[in-house]
Amino acid sequence: MAPISRVVRIVIGRAGLQRYLTALLFTALTLGAVSPAIAQEVLDPNPVVGSPAQDPQRNSNGLAQTPPMGWNSWNKFACNVNEKVIRDTADAIASNGMKDAGYQYVVIDDCWHGQRDADGFITADKARFPNGIKALADYIHAKGLKFGIYSDAGAKTCGGRPGSQGHEYQDALQYARWGVDYLKYDWCSTGTRNAEEAYTLMSDALRASGRPILFSMCEWGNAKPWLWAAKVGNLWRTTGDITARWEGKHGYSLGITTIVDFNEPLWPYAGPGHWNDPDMLEVGNGDLTPAEYRSHFALWSLMAAPLIAGNDVATMSQQTRDILLNRDVIAVNQDAAGVQGHRVWKQGDLEVWSKPLADGGRAVILWNRGTQPASITADWGMLGYPRSLKLNARDLWAHKELGQKAGSYAATVGAHDVVMITLRS
Ligand code: GLA
User: What are the residue ranges in the chain where pLDDT is below 50?
Assistant: First the structure.
């Protein structure tokens, strides 16, 4: 009885099992097939499903103490992934300064899958990955980088490849055997599945695999994962897919400023090990202006978002490189306090954002969403500082100390651009 009930519990969840048993017993009682005393005993959760001590440990997995940094294939390559693209990308990250700046995870998104084998284990698409996933993971590890992969909680991925539904433990085991360090887990073809149960199931499966695997939940924010997922995943998408547009909705996809406005109010839910994910970066992956790319990168950094590059890093321009490799800005993202910065002032298109840093300082963004240059002032009052305090300011895009400031800091900010500073005593 116990082992079967444990298997059932793993599949439908403890609450689901309890509801199922209650319904079953109620029917049996009604039919007179079971005595009320026996029904009561069976309904006692402990003898039936095992003591709570037998529940899987759902402590945080200890990963992603700062927002994860890396690269993912989707924004640039979509379904056109293969071994060469991934190897070239790993080569580039290891040699172009990205690795030294903190970019670590190389993640293959959708469409790497072949079919399941006779035992139900997932295989790679042999034409695209002739050497298999294990060899690719070894190659990436040999570069001092980490390797990530993609699956889906439904029967099929968004790209129509086999999903993990019904194969969660088997897939987690396969990933661990291959040397996977990061799993992005999508939400297509899930029908009426309960998101919390589905993601908890895969989270437990990853833990049971014995390999530390960072868990990136891609459920688009539908079931408000920020309310329940801190010990389930290391990051959770808060919105639909990003696209390289400045603003607005474009079908299912969203522009930069639209995503910012969804993600900003969720700041209290982020922290070390569990981050809001406003989706992967579009820096260098479209027709946005340098100012717009700077705003995108600065805001993602200040919001403690995962910094997952989405462009072709093997062929990127110097301009894109200067943004993605801005170590002053990256340091704000990777600050040990792990606070998600947020908006502290807004008037029309002009905004001031602040992120408290571990050393008591602040990272501050003056953001001009408008189409004309404008002056913006960050007053110490907006940042939670007494106005009399003298603070040392540093410009994070000019990489320049600005000297001591008292009471406020003002600057002219270009159209769709940011000024980003740190303030420290
Ligand atoms: C969904 C996700 C994207 C990407 C695609 C792959 O749309 O939100 O980030 O993974 O699926 O098909």
Answer: 1-52
Nearest to 102 by CA among 321, 398, 420, 331: 331
Between the CA of 119 and the centroid of ligand 1 the distance, in Å, is: 27
pLDDT digits (tens, 9 = 90+) for 41-60: 333 333 333 344 556 668 88
Residues with a known catalytic role: 186, 241
- pTM of the shown model: 0.88
Ligand 1 centroid distance, CA of 76 (Å): 12
Name, in order, each residue with C-beta under 8 angstroms of 245's C-beta and a sequence gap of 6 or more: 253, 255, 256, 286, 288
What lines the ligand 1 site, CB under 6 Å? 74, 109-110, 157-159, 186, 218, 241
What's the pLDDT tens digit per position in 208-235? 999 999 999 999 999 999 999 999 999 9
Distance from Cα 158 to the centre of ligand 1, integer Å: 6
Identify the residue whose C-alpha is closest to ligand 1 atom 4.
Answer: 74
**Which of 109, 149, 182 should be mutated for ligand 1, with most atoms under 8 A from CB?**
109
Half-sphere exposure of 104 (CA within 13 A, CB side): 13
CA distance to 12, 218, 227, per residue, from 231 (Å): 19, 15, 11
